[in-house]
Amino acid sequence: MSLHSVDPDSYNSDSYVHSPGHGSLTTEAAKTLVQAFTSCRLDYCNSLLYGVTDNVMRRVQSLQNAAARLITGARRRDHITQVLCQLH
Fold first, then answer.
1. Which residues of 34-64 are buried (b: 16+ CB within 10 A; e: fewer)?
2. DSSP string spanning 26-77?
3. Angle at CA 32, nearest 5°, toward 66 and 49?
4. pLDDT greater than 70 at residue 51
5. Which end of the chain is more exposed for a tag (fewer CB within 10 A), N or C?
């Protein structure tokens, strides 16, 4: 499952994250998967992001925002700042 194949409107705000055709994940399982596949890679490559173009930085930010929405069950139209604060 890639982030491109997940419909942002299919997220559920309960303790489960639903993705079409892929069953359900608990919030803790979603956090673990996001940490394993995105956050640790971004942390590992953080120094490589210095001096990248604005376009690349927007794509990285978009990935982080999508991961935060996946974990919290927020919809795409929800303000991301509140979603990110909820995770910290």
1. beeebeeeeeeeeeeeeeeeeeeeeeeeeeb
2. EHHHHHHHHIIIIIHHHHHTGGGGTT--HHHHHHHHHHHHHHHHHHHT--TT
3. 55
4. yes
5. C
